[in-house]
Amino acid sequence: CSFYYVFYLSVTNGGKTTLAEKLKRMLPNCDVISQDDFFKPESEVETDERGFKLYDELDALYMEEMVKSIRNWMKSPASSGVVTEELQNTCDNLKNMEDIYVLIVEGFLLYNYEPLNELWNRRYFLTLPYEECKRRRSTRVYQPADTPGYFDGHVWPMYLKYKNELEENASNVVYLDGTKPQEELLSCVYSDIIQELKKLRE
């Protein structure tokens, strides 16, 4: 029996990867697929008239390959190599769930790609306000490095564009405040997933 989950980061540096990796250690038979692993090489990413590399668009990613990876996992999760040897949480929540497999798919442009939308059992959307997002972005080192004006000229406008599309077209999305402490977010999402897994077991 399989169950699939998704994390969607509305904007850069929202904490999605950290959250996903912590959940992986807490949930039964859990694996993570990250959208960041499907970026095209820099030479294949388009550049606009301002000289900005357009990384925050679907065309910058091998999305078909990502869908293929997810579907391959779904076909045979038990043979994916996922083994939860020592769960951090050994409470009654996880009893009788040995045959349930959880896949967390995390990325910043997931719900805007139609072939993926039929796969999700649960949707989470991490949000950050402009100033906090910009502050966090400034502390990270990227390859290639952000050019002057890149955040305001490309990253933030694309976030607003895709967020609007999500609000117009997607349903059953759980919105999460990315400014809250990581442990609070982890507790909230973990409890939600456990409840869904219990429903599946019933």
Automatic annotation (TrEMBL):
Family annotation (InterPro entries): P-loop_NTPase (IPR027417)
UniProt KW keywords: ATP-binding, Kinase, Magnesium, Metal-binding, Nucleotide-binding, Pyridine nucleotide biosynthesis, Transferase
Record-linked Pfam families: AAA_18
Catalysed reactions, semicolon-separated: beta-D-ribosylnicotinate + ATP = nicotinate beta-D-ribonucleotide + ADP + H(+); beta-nicotinamide D-riboside + ATP = beta-nicotinamide D-ribonucleotide + ADP + H(+)
Metabolic or biological pathway: Cofactor biosynthesis; NAD(+) biosynthesis
GO terms, biological process: NAD+ metabolic process; pyridine nucleotide biosynthetic process
Record-level GO cellular component terms: cytosol
GO molecular function per UniProt: ATP binding; metal ion binding; nicotinate riboside kinase activity; ribosylnicotinamide kinase activity
Protein biosynthesis as UniProt keyword: no
Family: Belongs to the uridine kinase family. NRK subfamily.
Listed name of the protein: NRK1 kinase
Species of provenance: Podargus strigoides (Tawny frogmouth)
Gene responsible for this protein: Nmrk1
